[in-house]
Amino acid sequence: MAKKILIIEDEEILLNLLQKKLSHLGYEVFVAQDGDIGVTKIKEIKPDLILLDIVMPKMNGIEVMEEIIKDGELKKIPVIIISNSGQPLEIERAKELGARDWLIKTEFDPQEVIEKVIKQIGR
User: Fewer beta carbons under 10 A from the terminal one: N or C of the chain?
Assistant: First the structure.
């Protein structure tokens, strides 16, 4: 059975690119364009991995992670942050909340995302 990845990202171009790349590798990919919808989808589909933006409408990535860790089952899901901000405080907070890895959008390389995904959940 294909591993499920949920991408929570409000930038449509990046969202489509990641969705296409990961689907092509055989992952089952789900998307949400804000944190609110993201939290609902996490609870519904229980993905094997979450790619999470920090700066989003309605609920930001840190708030999404705060919701996830309230649930014993959901907090085991690996989270990789994809953000425009490389703020040390933000990175520290995300790590405290359980983020496994971090990517900065300005230095973004789709291959790097794929490598990090495979490192977390295999193929």
Answer: N
CA distance 27 to 121: 10
Query: Which tens digit of pLDDT belongs to each residue from 30-44?
Result: 999 999 999 999 999
* Sheet with 101-104: strands ordered across: 28-32, 4-8, 49-53, 79-83, 101-104
Tallying the residues shown for the chain, one arrives at 123
C-alpha–C-alpha distance, residues 109 and 92, integer Å: 22
Backbone angles phi, psi at 34, to 5 degrees: -155, 165
* Domain ranges across the chain: 40-51+59-85+98-103
Structure letter (DSSP) for residue 72: T
CATH class of 40-51+59-85+98-103: alpha beta
